[in-house]
Amino acid sequence: KREQEEAEREMVRLKIHYQTNEKNLVLSKTTTLAEATRLAADLYNLGSSFPPDCIRLRLYQAYHDIPQDTYTGKEHLGLAALGLHNPYSSRSMLLETRQPDEDFLEYDPSRTFLKVSKFDPVTSRFEQPIAVYMGKDSTLGDLKATLETKFNIPAAKQRVFKEGYTTAEELRPPDNTPISSYRVYDATKIFVEEDEDEVDESNEESNSPYGLRKESRAVKEMERIRNLIEVTFTLPGKEQPLPEHKLTIDKNLKYGELKKLLQPYLGLDLNEFKVYRGVSTWKTELKDEDEPLHECYVRTGSVLFTEKGTPMKKGEVACTIYSFDGSKEGEDPFVELFNLPVPETCLVSDLLVILHKKIKEEKGIESISPAHLRIREMWSRCVNKTYLPNKTLRENMRYNYPEKTLAVQVLKEPDTIKDDKELVVFIQVFDPATFTLGERTEVIVNEDWTMDELNRWVSERTQIPVQDVGLARVANNHYITDILEVPELEWDRKPSPYQSRHTVGTSPLYLKDGELLLIRNNSVQLKVLSKEEKEALEKEANNKKKVSSQSSYSLWSRKEKALKIHTESGEA
Q: Are the beta carbons of 175 and 140 closer than 8 angstroms?
């Protein structure tokens, strides 16, 4: 294996760029540049189209699209001698061709490399860009003189533009302005247009180097090109797009117009398929047919996924409905029921009626009414925020996501929760003396209660003296899998000194909807487990983790305990 690694380090990895394509080539570091050029030409089958002296390989900065060193006169040297050997990364090289009656441009690091395109007024399109090299201290007049030679456009009738960060920028007179003053650097894209009128440098309005002097067809074309994005799409039931399933479209195109472009590929009516953006494991459905694609976060490189089905409408939320049974321990309390599009403006009381009807029809549950159902947000297979019946779906949502996972809970009695301040949480008593957990119970507490009020409430329910009440919050979960972790929780957190009033929902507890609140008697000494008891509890915890698919509370690592030595006179 070591010999293989050493052999690989002796190789040179090249990325060969030709036109818009890229292919990989792995060669020995002793391979000459001439031989590498021949092999690179073979990759693209150029040998039959160009004689060997009309093909060359040069260094290339792919990110900024800048051709660099041509290694003229060094074709006989090996790749390592040219500084192209790097055992840990690839080198980008550009494969260039020319006609027999043309000359290659030589690389001069002291000159600025520009990519210049001429606007064709007949087709309203730009011609293919050509490479132009200018001196670092060249002026606008020097650039115009060069462009006059290249494109046969009189300098006095040239309108010269550069591609700016957000829009086109015109390089306006005076012509003695250095091109560096226009922020023209290596790889800048320059566009030239022939103007019907000669530019009057004496015109005061023309003397600012910024902005457009007047309307320009070339600028409109530049903006059209700038707005183009390339996306790929899948067919229903497929996870990956085929090479031919590619569209080049305007980013300002509305989603409804995009659906019409996709329709011929799918062979479905517009109301029979849905379109998603994102990745195969996390997709968001597009809904608003009047929304421009760039506002839908569809960009160059985006993959659009299509599926058969009735598309959602603007203002609807894709809800995945689960049933939740909080009494289950050691097994998954969630069962997926169905998917349901729900308008954001729908009252939760109306949604409860819809869910009641759907559960009754699909699950055959007869002995409940809408008042016996409670809707809660679900995240990472844990319940949290409880939805109030007198508010809309949007008003209840903590975060405005286009897709929601909701859990519906069947109650023994009609739901009584009416206030946002009320938290539906679970409580469970831990007995230190026996190292056991009592029954887990769902209760309603108020997040504005002070800690004293909570302690008195706990004392009344558990008969633990108020001064001995110990509390620990199990964050973002309602279930303990490993009881051995319970003593290591953060019991009886100290309140923040920066808050004058300490409540259930703030420091020190920060209790949230759906979480588990553990209770203990602080005056009771913790039982010291024997090796056999500890092993039995570990085995029980492992079994619970196997049968439960929910993510239960777990510490990153169990803390080291101080060694206790018991003597006849006490602990030492």
A: yes
**Contact partners, residue 300, CB within 8 Å, separation at least 6:** 229, 230, 231
Which amino acid would we find at residue 130?
A: I
Of 357, 334, 325, 348, residue with least CA distance to 397: 348
Q: How far is CA 532 from CA 528, 541, 548, in A?
A: 12, 14, 24
CA–CA distance, 323 with 339 (Å, rounded to integer): 12
Q: Distance between CA atoms of 437 and 459, rounded to whole angstroms?
A: 17
Q: Give the tens place of pLDDT for each residue, 481-524.
A: 889 999 999 999 988 888 778 899 999 999 999 999 999 999 99
Q: Coil, helix or strand for 366? A: coil
Length of the chain: 572
Both structure tokens of 91: 């080198």
What 8-state DSSP symbol labels residue 460? H
CB 430 within 8 A of CB 486: yes
Closest CA to 96 of 50, 135, 62, 164: 50
Token pair in block for residue 375: 């809707």
Give the 3-state secondary structure of 112-134: EEEEEEEEECCCCEECCCEEEEE
Query: What are the tens digits of pLDDT across the range 256-306?
Result: 999 999 999 999 999 999 999 998 888 889 999 999 999 999 999 999 999
User: Phi and psi at residue 339, in whole multiples of 5°?
Assistant: -105, 145
Q: Residue 72 is which amino acid?
A: T
Element (H, E) at 317: strand 316-324
Facing residues of 132 across strands?
A: 114
Cα distance between residue 225 and residue 433, in whole Å: 75
